[in-house]
Amino acid sequence: MHRVFNTSGTCSVQIEFDIDDEGCLHNIRYLGGCDGNLKAIGLLAEGKNASEVADLLGGLRCGFKQTSCGDQLSKAIREAGY
Predict the structure, then answer these.
(1) What tens digit of pLDDT does each residue of 14-55 get?
(2) Which of 45, 42, 56 is nearest to 23 (CA)?
(3) Is residue 19 within 8 Å of 5, Cβ to Cβ?
(4) Is the model's pTM score more than 0.70?
(5) 3-state SS, one letter per residue, for the chain
(6) Distance of alpha carbon 46 from alpha carbon 62, whole angstroms
(7) Which residues contact 22 (CB under 8 A, 6 or more apart)?
């Protein structure tokens, strides 16, 4: 399943990713934001269980913001039903 999620409250504006039939994440790509850090999130989460990644990243904040790019990925995963 391919997902596109429009972020809110972060420097990145969109996240695209795939979730396979086993519930694992693939091809995570952010549009905008801190390129190196967001590539790292994608590499670290590649092939991992979507629900576990959402649990790890949910609630993270970036500086004084109420959310972060990781938190937004968690929200996108939850919106996808995981």
Answers:
(1) 999 999 999 999 999 999 999 999 999 999 999 999 999 999
(2) 45
(3) no
(4) yes
(5) CEEEEECCCCCEEEEEEEECCCCEEEEEEEEECCHHHHHHHHHHHCCCEHHHHHHHHCCCCCCCCCCCHHHHHHHHHHHCCC
(6) 22
(7) none
